Amino acid sequence: LYKIIMKSDEIFIYIQSKTPFNINNIDKYGLIFVKSFEFNISSEGIYTFDIQTFPCKTINDKRLYLTDIQQRYNWLQKQFKKFNIDLLECTEYSMKKFYLDKDKVKEIPSSSFRGKIYINDINLGNQLLQNGLGRFKNYGLGLILIK
To answer: For residue 108, which of 117, 97, 123 has the smallest C-alpha distance?
Structure first.
């Protein structure tokens, strides 16, 4: 899983992988390696989170973006419950189109959320970190950052 975050003139790429990331040739591409760390949830408790995802419902085998903000919050809460995580507080801070191809022909809406969660089960919390949340993870949606 990966997530690209742009802050002023800097671009950060967060890569989450079960295997170590190979940084041997990263300077060939003009990139600078900043930090690598292994993150595992070691205790139950309150954590802050940030995620960009595709809140949707399926009707007639088609995934439809949830246009109502309360439905999106309910969807997120339901996704966290699958991992025995309680959503304590949440703000949707961004909604934007996410393009699935470089020609910008295929696009999906996405929502970015941040807030606080309570992790009740360490193993399920780590499973969430490894697998991400929701649909379109192979396009970069669903990577959750937890602090």
So the answer is: 97
